[in-house]
Amino acid sequence: MMNITRVWASSVARKQADTRLGSAGVSLVELLIALAISSVGISAAIQAFAAYGLRLSQQQVAMIGNQELRLGMDVLCSELRLASSGLLGGEAPFLKAEANEAEFFANLSSSATTLTQSAVPGLQDLQVDDGTDWPRGKQIVLCSATRCMWNQLAADGRKHQLTLATPPTEQFQIRSAVFLLNRVRYYVKPQGEGALRLMREVDGGVSTLLSDVRRFQLRYFNRLGNVTDDAREVVRVQVRIEVGTQGLVLSRDIAIRT
């Protein structure tokens, strides 16, 4: 009788233990379902982070593109303003004034000096306050109060002397001004896939001012506010540049110093 009781008690205890273990554990199917749900959640989180990273990258590209566009426009506008006829005896401020190209002379470095002795017809050497670092071959303009004369340097400038390529045909009085000029050209060049590069050329040296240009347009206006294609009449230039696939656009009006 005692043995039967012990066996029955042991059987009941095992069943109770099995019941407790079964209720506390998980089946393989439940584990797989949990893993699938977790995978979906992780995948959604990864996609969300990827989308956020893409938007952030696009914003950074747009910011960089916008900054480059503004800097390029600043350079272009600052040099266009110097395409002045004021120092050139009434000559046209532009050598070329087209819809996608402009060429002109400008004193980019603000290099100027004055005569310390009168410039005499037939003599190539000018005595000046300071001609240091004025390179050979550069264009110059010599101006009095009433007239100006173009010329070119035959040699590198010295402290108190500039040597002209051709002697002056007129006399210029002491204290007449001498200006160093740069030949500047802006134009577009194909880049591929419908894009362009805006090129900047100064005295024959060429560099890319802006890449991935989708549109570059120049419009020229006269004193009456009308569009003109006569370079002699230009007093204002409107610049419009569009860059990048996102279509960043910047437009400005530049008054020419006359």
As residue ranges, the low-confidence spans are none
- What does the main sheet amount to? 10 strands, antiparallel
Provide the β-strand percentage band. 25-35%
Rounded radius of gyration (Å):
39 Å
Structural class: alpha+beta
Can you tell me the overall shape?
elongated
Enumerate how many helices there are, as a single number: 2
Tell me the helix content.
25-40%
Average pLDDT, rounded to a whole number, is 83
Order of helices and strands: HHEEEEEEEEEEEE
| Number of DSSP-assigned strands | 12
Describe this entry's structure for a reader.
- The protein has helices at residues 2-24, 28-80, and strands spanning 96-98, 101-106, 112-114, 125-127, 139-143, 148-152, 161-163, 177-192, 195-202, 205-221, 236-243, 248-255.
- By secondary structure, the chain is an alpha+beta fold.
- 29% of the residues lie in helices and 33% in strands.
- The longest helix has 53 residues, at 28-80.
- It has 2 helices and 12 strands; from the N terminus they run ααββββββββββββ.
- Strands 1, 2, 3, 5, 6, 8, 9, 10, 11 and 12 form a 10-stranded antiparallel beta sheet that branches. Strands 4-7 form a two-stranded antiparallel ribbon.
- The protein is elongated.
- A hairpin with a 2-residue loop joins β8 (177-192) and β9 (195-202).
- 19% of the residues are buried.
